[in-house]
Amino acid sequence: MIKPLASLTLLIAVTTATAQQVPGNEAVRTTAVGRTVTLPAVPAKPPPLCRADAGCHAGAWRMVETASGLMECTEPWARDGSCRPSTYGAQKPRRVWVVLHRGTWLQCQFPDLGSRCAPMLARPPANLPTDAVQ
Predict the structure, then answer these.
(1) 28, 118 in Cβ contact below 8 A?
(2) What pLDDT, in 10s, does the model give residues 94-125?
(3) pTM for this one?
(4) Lower CB density within 10 Å: C or N end of the chain?
(5) How far apart are CA 72 and CA 63, in angstroms?
(6) How far apart are CA 96 and CA 129, in angstroms?
(7) Cα distance between the two ends of the chain
(8) DSSP string spanning 7-41?
(9) Angstrom distance (rounded) from CA 81 to CA 41
């Protein structure tokens, strides 16, 4: 028999572990060989790189699944230097979740495809994501 406190601890651990992934994110695939991750294509003329450790980023952090796991990035393309390890659960900055769904890259308000999502490649203002402190 599981004691009530032990079951509560187990529930919290399971919730924390699954909250860092977006169910339905087609960019992350797990096969018999291992885990593969697809990143959004970098535009032909990308903006200048804002390094994650440089203090130049004023907007919401882009939560991107990479080969190294979930990262907080200054941009949705996760170029080298633009990301830092996730602080999800420890800090609460503004965040937007980068997700591949039905072949379209989206930026979602929460780690849930049912939240407000905006297509990354749409023309402004339709591509402007809604961020949230989380």
Answers:
(1) no
(2) 999 999 999 999 999 999 999 999 999 988 88
(3) 0.81
(4) N
(5) 5
(6) 7
(7) 35
(8) HHHHHHHHHHHHHTS-TT-TTEEE-SS-EEE--PP
(9) 16
Residue 16: is its pLDDT beyond 90? Answer: no
Please give the helix or strand (H or E) that residue 4 lies within, else none. Answer: helix 4-19
- Is residue 95 classed as helix, strand or coil in its secondary structure? strand
Q: What confidence tens digit (pLDDT) does each residue in 19-63 have?
A: 478 999 999 998 898 889 999 999 999 999 999 999 898 899 999
- Residue 106 parent element (H or E): strand 104-108
Which residue is associated with the tokens 């490649």? Answer: 121
* Residue in the block written with tokens 């941009």: 75
Phi-psi bin for 39: left (phi > 0), alpha (psi -120 to 50), beta? beta
Q: In Å, how far from its chain's centre is CA 84?
A: 12
